[in-house]
Amino acid sequence: METTAVNELPGGKPYFYYRLKKDFPIQSRQTHWRGYPQLVHLRDGMLEVWLNCQKYTLSAGDVLYIAAGTLISWQLMGAELDVLVFDPARFTRLPNSQDISFFPRGSCLCIRDDNQALIACLHNFIGGLILSSRYFDNCVPDLRQIMLAYTEGAYTTLTPETPAFSARQLSHLKTVLQMIESHLCEQMTLDQLAAEIGLSSKYFCRFFQRMTGMTPFTYINVRRIEWACDLFIREKATVRDISERVGYRDINYFIKTFKRYCGMTPKRFSSHYFGAAEYLTQY
Questions:
Q1: Residue 101: partners with Cβ closer than 8 Å, 6 or more residues away
Q2: Nearest 10 degrees: CA dihedral of 151, 156, 162, 166?
């Protein structure tokens, strides 16, 4: 079975950048967790994001820092994003950067663009990495400015718009999502998923829908289509091949489901987006 886990960034690089543009047909991403920290700059539009199942709304200019291991889902609203995925261990091995870390482990920040210093430092840092790969070799001064602005509280955070879930609930959800990801191309039953966290099938359905906003099998369908999109972008493969690899035995049902979620057929999606690395969003 093909795995969807991420063990390292592409090419062993210390960071990976992509831009999510407005014309991409998938305008939402369902609940999943990120293996590496990320900085997201909202260039335009609005972004509704759920971090550990708490909702935030960002507008143009805002910056989002996502810690590794965060449960995240999002909905774009005419938005265009710069996304910087990085390996923090590689940054701390830069010369004269032993005392530099990005943010406290396990934290996330939604930062409002209100002319405070941290936003300006982050914009400058992201822009430098976008414009030149050589910038990384000389970015220590900018990293120090980021940490100084952070420690001095030179930023305004957005507060969540929804109540927090308990650590136990988030742990249960992560366990179930990990099981789904590990067996995404296989047939799973409701009893199997519920048993993974020791709940009855009936209560599990209510729990899952409250946490993610959808039923377990709707979620599985959506994740399979998201996976199929990533495969179509990466590989020149047939629709039937991708359909089978992501767990659909009936190619007609796959095409119908894909079109419902993406607004176009798999064949059209593949011809338009194959090789467009800026749309790979699984990290």
A1: 88, 92, 147
A2: 0
Q: Cα separation of 194 and 202, whole Å?
A: 9
Residues whose CB is less than 8 angstroms from the CB of residue 271 and which lie 6 or more positions away in sequence, other chains included:
none
Q: Is the Cβ–Cβ distance between 156 and 120 less than 8 Å?
A: no
Q: Which of 100, 161, 153, 128 is nearest to 41 (CA)?
A: 128
- At residue 220's C-alpha, the angle toward residues 216 and 222, to 5°, is 115
pLDDT digits (tens, 9 = 90+) for 10-48: 667 788 888 888 877 777 777 887 778 899 999 999 999
Q: Measure Cα distances from 80 to 38, 43, 108, 190 in Å.
A: 16, 5, 20, 37
Pairing of strands 15-20, 28-33: unpaired
CA dist., res. 260 & res. 78, Å (int): 20
